[in-house]
Amino acid sequence: MPDESIRTLILATAILFAGISGFIIYFVVLYRNRQLKNKQEQAALQAAFQQELLRTQIEMQDQTLNYISGEIHDNITQVLSFVKLSLAMPKNAGESEKQLKIKESRELISQVITDLRDLSKSLSYDHITSLGLSKTIEIEVERINKSRLIDMSFILDGTPHSLGSQPELVLFRIFQEAVNNVLKHSGAKHFVARLQYQPDLFNLTLEDDGAGFSTDLQGDKNGSGLKNIINRAALIGGAATISSSPGKGCSIVVTFNPFKQQFYSDGPAHQNRFS
Amino acid sequence: MSFIAIVYCFLLLIAWTIGIARYSRLSAAFKILSWSFPVVFLCNIISPFWVDRFGNNAPILHVESLTDYVFFSATFYYLLKSKTTKKIVLISMVIVALFVVINAIYWQGFYKKFPTNVYFLTQPLLAIFSLLLFKEMLMYPLKINPVKQSAFWYNTAILFYATTMFFYLGLSNYFPEHNLHDHFFYYFWYLIFYVFDILLAVAILTDNQKTTLENA
């Protein structure tokens, strides 16, 4: 009888050990599967991010080309045509009149050269990397102010530092999208772009005094642009808050923490995280 | 002191040495765990002398049942992510401490009996914490292989210890009633602790605060 009990006991012990071992093996297999799934999800996210980034770059190029095309047509061609006409003086024009025309033409050509230099700065999105986000936005504000389409203000708080080339590109695209929305739909007279740099937080605030809209009814004309802003902010691990109501303008605040970027975002802040 | 007990003490010393050697690289959870080895070692050294003098080692086991639980649950406290579970772990430490005192005074005398009641309470708790940690590990998997993770080895050790100990305690009534071999009990007890301490030593050996952060 005791032998039978011992056999039962050994069997029970063996079953217990086998159960624990089985559980541990099952856990390891499950864990590996979960790791694989996570890896695939991360790869998919990274691919989506790269795709979105490419789309952003193409959009910026499109916008830049449109702007250049408009500038060449409306400004440079006009000025050069004027210079051409100005220099086609009648043969009997006096010496002083000739000198005056030449002087005017020289001034106009200088203006064209300045405009072309400004244009060259807009030719590539690489200038965001070299100039930095704040300087690029400042230049863009100056350019728009020159066009007199709207009165834009640029406010910089804190010391600018790099947020990483990809996040800066996306933030600049958000700025452009907001400006486009304001120029096309809002009828605003004033626009404020405010950049706040703090050691572990960056805020981009874009405010206008235009017609505004109900945030519940974003589905129509403004909808896709504003959704783009929210999606793009999320893409770099930031958050965009859009506040507006009819007749009270619109405020867009993009908050971005360089230390909490998505794993696929670059930038010195991210690299420093574990260094 | 028997040969098997000496080997066990030697095993504890090795685990303690590993803990000291790797102390600066250990995370908070395993720093705490590494201090459980000298405490258990001390209890095992004192135990035979206490038996010689007072006839049994019940007081040491009463104290050890509490210190074991405090060390293991504190380790869980640092390993678990869920705030609710962390609170439960802290509350359980207080409850177990009170229970150990009440048990030693009223039910299983401090100088007389092995504190089985305490183990009947603490072992299921540890098993539950272990399963909760396994669940959390699955929810937030790290990039590194689980067998290279200290939490995995610690969890395995605790699950093994809690279930086999519970099994052992369940049989502790059955054996004397049927006049079965006492030495089986003795070896089984040490087998549990050999495996348990080896697994804990592996956990301390694989723990690296930096690696865990980088692969999160």
Describe this structure in words.
The complex is a heterodimer of chains A (275) and B (216). Chain A has seven helices and five strands; from the N terminus they run ααααβαββαββα. Chain A has a five-stranded mixed sheet, covered by helices on one side. Chain A has helices at 2-87, 95-122, 126-131, 133-147, 165-186, 223-235, 268-272; strands at 151-157, 190-198, 201-208, 239-244, 250-256. In chain A, β4 and β5 (250-256) form a beta hairpin. The longest helix of chain A is centred in the N-terminal third of the chain and has 86 residues, at 2-87. With 216 residues, chain B is mainly α. Chain B has one domain (3-214). Chain B is 81% helix and 0% strand. Chains A and B meet through α1 of A and α6 and α7 of B.
What key phrases describe this protein's structure?
heterodimer, A: 275 residues, alpha+beta, Heat Shock Protein 90, 2 domains, five-stranded mixed sheet, 7 helices, 64% helix, elongated, disordered C terminus, B: 216 residues, mainly alpha, 9 helices, 0% strand, globular
Oligomer: heterodimer
Largest sheet data of chain A: 5 strands, mixed
CATH superfamily of the largest domain in chain A: Histidine kinase-like ATPase, C-terminal domain
Sketch the topology of chain B as an H/E string, one letter per element.
HHHHHHHHH
Could you tell me the number of beta strands of chain A? 5
Shape of chain B: globular
